[in-house]
Amino acid sequence: MENLWLTASIWVALSLAGALLAGWTGISISLVEIIVGVLAGNFLGLHTETWVNYLAGAGSILLTFLAGAEVDPVVLKTKFKESLSIGLLSFLLPFIGAFLYAYYSLGWDLRAAQIAGIALSTTSVAVVYAVMVETGLNESELGRIILAACFITDLGTVVALGILFANFNAWMLLFLAVTAAVLSITPRFTPWFVQRYGNRVSQLEVKYLFFLLFLLGGLASLAGSEAVLPAYLLGLAMAGFFLEEKNLTLRMRTIAFSFLTPFYFLKAGLYVSLPAVWASAGIIMVALVVKMVSKFIGVWPVTRLFRFSSREGMYTTLLMSTGLTFGTISSLFGLTHGFINQEQYTILVTTVILSAVVPTLIAQTFFRPELVQAAVSKKQSLAMIPQERKG
């Protein structure tokens, strides 16, 4: 009989190793955990367990919820035309391009090609947000537009996943009805609940949020959909509340990134076969080109239409070409539900990982807006001024 606690210690040790590598290299922790999972699956013979699947699933739900909660509703409203145009085309054209490539060029069946279209149409909110904060662009108008556009793109991918792979039956009607009710009630009910029962040792507000996420996720599963869909919508519905409740946001992030999401990203990497990556290297590179070119065709002209400078337009296009979280979620959904096989999963996840790295490096190296560099320098200079002189 396998020793549960020793097995758990191995998974946590891998998570710890990933965190240390991320700190030393400066690479996104999610990306490093996937790579560690790849190595563990190919060289250590690690495999999933029932409890690992549960924790990984909970991690993906919570991560998706937090991504939705990061969207600033005010920015989404004030820059709606720019955000909607960039975000919608950033999803639609790569979805079509990747679907056609997988269906006609690679000969994948309809369901597998649809998974490919969804997985390669995503934009990584996690990667983009980290870049925004690092460069100071999150405080500029350009940065706010990019972040809002990321939400539109990923909302498109989540909705597509729900629509294309849902079973329209009585369970679906129940799921839609309950989700609509929860989304309409929670923005008003949650502030009262947290004010009345929050900030206690028992963490009632955290348990309340997990109850909503698991309830909607369970109904989504019964309807044949994916639990991340209502989680993302619930996060958006409560985004205004979370922007004011920084302490609660921090606690939820701590739960997610310290314990739950490492299992998800390690598991995602576990299914990548290195021999399959080597055998499919040409397909993977073409898939990456398809994603980046289709993103360029969709996003670049729109940035020029809204009078972005050439540098800002290219920078925006490259950041919208990134992918990680929703790409791996979509791919893993396809694998676990039998829509794609392990070789196809490996192709998609490897392409997604490369899309998190390549466009970001190009954008930061060659197209980083000068105004951001100036703003960062100014902030650094102000930080060096003694506090009494600032006053």
Polypeptide structure, described:
The termini are far apart. It is built from 20 helices and no strands. It has a single domain (about 30-380), classed as Na+/H+ antiporter like fold (Up-down Bundle). Mean pLDDT is about 85; it is low at about 370-390. It is mainly α and about 400 residues long. It is about 80% helix and about 0% strand. Helix 2 (about 30-45) packs parallel to helix 13 and helix 16 (about 310-320) packs antiparallel against helix 18 (about 340-365). The longest helix is centred in the middle third of the chain and has 28 residues, at about 170-195. It is globular, with a radius of gyration of 21 Å. It is a multi-pass membrane protein.
Quick overview:
The chain is an all-alpha fold. The protein contains 20 helices and no strands. It has helices at residues 4-25, 29-43, 50-69, 73-78, 80-105, 110-119, 125-135, 141-164, 170-197, 204-222, 228-237, 239-244, 246-270, 274-279, 281-305, 310-320, 325-336, 342-366, 370-384, 387-390.
Draw up the topology in text:
Elements: H1 4-25, H2 29-43, H3 50-69, H4 73-78, H5 80-105, H6 110-119, H7 125-135, H8 141-164, H9 170-197, H10 204-222, H11 228-237, H12 239-244, H13 246-270, H14 274-279, H15 281-305, H16 310-320, H17 325-336, H18 342-366, H19 370-384, H20 387-390
Main location: membrane
Organism: Thermanaeromonas toyohensis ToBE
Family: Belongs to the monovalent cation:proton antiporter 2 (CPA2) transporter (TC 2.A.37) family.
